[in-house]
Amino acid sequence: MPTGTIKMNQPPPQPIIGPPPKSTKYKGVKHTIMVMSGKGGVGKSTISVNLAVSLARNYRVGLIDADINGPDDPKMLGVSDEKVDVNEEGKILPVKTKYNVDVISMGFLLPTEDTAVIWRGALRHKALQQFLEDVAWGERDFVIMDMPPGTGDEALSVAQIVPDVEGVVVVVTPQDVALLDAKKAINFASQMKLKVLGLVENMSGFVCPHCGETVNIFKKGGGEEAARKYNVPFLGRIPLYTEIVESSDNGVPSVSQSNAIAEAFNKITENLLNVMEKRSTVR
Ligand SMILES: Nc1ncnc2c1ncn2[C@@H]1O[C@H](COP(=O)(O)OP(=O)(O)O)[C@@H](O)[C@H]1O
Ligand SMILES: [Mg+2]
User: Fold this and answer.
1) Measured over all CA atoms, what is the biggest interatomic distance in the chain, rounded to whole angstroms?
2) How far is CA 78 from the centre of its chain?
3) H or E segment at 177?
4) What residues are in contact with ligand 1 under a 6 Å CB criterion?
5) Which residues contact residue 87 at a Cβ distance below 8 angstroms, ignoring those fewer than 6 apart?
6) Which ligand does the CA of 42 lie closest to?
7) Which domains does the chain have, with CATH numbers?
8) In this predicted model, what pLDDT tens digit does every residue of 110-145 receive, in sequence order?
9) Are 113 and 3 in contact (CB under 8 A)?
10) The dihedral sign for the CA sequence 239, 240, 245, 247
């Protein structure tokens, strides 16, 4: 027979309530912009990397690959074989790229490119916190955060700890469901008290490399319609180009070339800067 007694009158332990505290050690960055979406595979990493490279022509830019489970940014920037170093103060040095963008990613910490990260939320959260606090970001005009997919736990945990977020850029695809996906992401942002800086419609029509004709595989205009409906700025659209896949796979961001694709990405950067300027936040 067990002999322990149960004390009925003691209050139960208090559950942990409230969000985790925002980081107080992530400083020196003027504008932190989160790139997110209502779901995965819509081109967050593609947009994040190209936005960062495009901004880096005129600004000091860092990129945080906050997708711990699917860290694609090193490959897209041609630095997947790099490992991180620490400086004399013990701070992690972000990896330098040819494109004037310094990047930190779980990808640099894994033994091989195809190692799966099987971590519970708390550990992923800790990694993210290190990307903010233990990396020698120094003075930066922009840090772009390539967010985990969707609006679930992981995105929430990232959004909660980053202080002074300038706002979010929402990536959607052009189908009718873009309305739903955009709504999810916009609701997420508003619940987190984050400003939506604008919406990008990605995979918007396929430009045939042979005849130059555009085929609207996923329809067209869902992103723009969503932007109108939810009253957020529309930053532009990136068509489906086979070259974008090749560029990502080869580690040469599309925007670093000079063609119509680069122009489309640059236009989005320009529109984003205009939105920020109107809010007079570009310091
Ligand atoms: N506009 C586009 N045209 C062609 N391929 C694209 C385009 N945008 C993204 N891709 C490709 O689609 C895949 C998913 O994009 P990615 O940026 O990794 O999405 P996410 O980060 O949202 O999961 C990648 O292989 C990428 O190269
Ligand atoms: Mg990604």
Assistant:
1) 83
2) 18
3) helix 177-191
4) 37, 40-46, 72, 149, 202-203, 238, 240-241, 244-245, 248
5) 93, 136
6) 1
7) 29-278 (3.40.50.300)
8) 877 777 777 777 788 889 999 999 999 999 999 999
9) no
10) negative
